[in-house]
Amino acid sequence: MNESTPKQIIRLWYGGASRRGIARMLGINRKAVGRVLVDHENRMAGVAEVGRGRRPNLLDDFAGDLAQLLERNPGMTGVRLHKELRDRGFTGGYSIVRERLRAVRPLPQKRQEVFDWMRALLQGAVPHATLTKELGHVAELDKLLTAILEGKLSHRNRAMAVLARERGIGQSYVRSFLHISKNAATRYWKYYQNGGTTQLFAQRENSQKRSEDEDLKRAVFALLHAPPSTHGINRTTWRLADLKMVLRSQGQVVCPEVIRTIIKKAGYKWRKARTVLTSKDPQYKAKLKAIQDILSKLKDDEAFFSIDEFGPFAVKKRGGRKRVAPEESYTVPQWQKSKGHLIVTAALELSRNLVTHFYSKKKNTEEMIKMMELLRAQYRTCKTIYLSWDAASWHISRTLFSRIKELNEEGPSLGYPVVKTAPLPAGAQFLNVIESVFSGMARGVIHNSDYPALEAAERAIDEYFEARNHYFRKHPRRAGRKIWGLERVDSEFRESNNCKDPLYR
């Protein structure tokens, strides 16, 4: 706690703030606020010692010397007393001697009477008739009293300074009690003399806040736009303490709160960098254009599928985000026995927004052939179906393309659609729209789950996709929207659409 903090505590206390409120405003412990107020009350009452435990300090070893010096010269000043003690071996600073001197030496009688009167006035304990008798005719007395009892801190100090001056109290007492400067006390009196309470309580038009200083703003933003290392600071991001230090070296003396206000008003916010998925496929634009051409000309008797696998993932107690009670501790064991593993192979038809899925033991060409034959049979009424998947090896194998060629040769004669492929560029999983559905499924039925067996997890996933398909059959639309608030992005094919959830692995 620095030297000015006790003064701020006392001012806020007389301003009507509670101990808890003072602690919050100054960022200190509530017990520390209480100790300062107890010490202040004891000094006001002329109590020699404060009835509480006090931490030892360097002056304790010189208590006898201090008492001897004060007995010899009760009016010795703090500066002289500190010098005498230094000559006797005391190594502490002047502030320790000053605080001890305030605790052991009672206030002068006149000072005590003045402080008692001003404190009673702040507490509303002085009757109006008594004030009228003591002060005589004071212009706008009622407004001044209202400001003292109900106004904000700045207005209370101004009104108190005026009434104390009207009563004939010396300016030094007023300054000491209110903890204000000589210039402030003089300025308040001149305001009242020239324009009454209107000018006394008026907001100064020419008073510019430090945070509105254009030169200071330019200096702050000049620093923010340059790395700290350019100013000899071994950091990669700025701290308020670093900004304050560099600005002080440039002649701009400013506190961290003003710097924070300037930065906040300018709209600066903390942002965490996100890793943007990018594709290095040399045929990226050509493949993307081919897919967009297919979707732009897709007919009612055609279907376009986004296909991928989810998993493998272990069936065990899973973490996630959920609402918990204040007393509840939400944890997930690091080491768990798995109840089985799942791979969900699924296809999303973009124009109808319907999902077809099954469970696989492996990710291989056989599973892709199985999916292709399932979609071929399920969408038999279509003339053409397009299969779009990423550049995984089992998605582009020779066996898969050979099987597609065989089925296409005999398909039209048997009433099956023609199967065509529309492969995604390599490293472009952000274009695979099925990832959006997988993210929604994971948040809906996998995160925060603790299924007792593999079958229970499969049943939950089946019900999720069944409910989703039921919704889109009832409300058909080409480009889906976020389902029940669980899917990250709209089920739309866009180059800027990042369907993959970066928080999910």
Short structural description:
By secondary structure, this protein is an alpha/beta fold.
Query: How far apart, in Å, are the first and last alpha carbons?
Result: 48 Å
Write the CATH fold name of the domain at 284-321 and 336-474: Nucleotidyltransferase, domain 5
Q: Estimate the helix proportion, in percent.
A: 40-55%
Helix-strand category: alpha/beta
Overview of this protein structure:
The structure is a single chain. Helix content is 49%, strand content 8%. About 5% of the residues have low confidence. A hairpin with a 4-residue loop joins strand 2 and strand 3. With 505 residues, the chain is an alpha/beta fold. Strands 3-2-1-4-5 form a five-stranded mixed sheet, with helices on both faces. Among the domains are: 91 residues, no CATH class; 56 residues; 177 residues, Nucleotidyltransferase, domain 5 (2-Layer Sandwich), CATH 3.30.420.10.
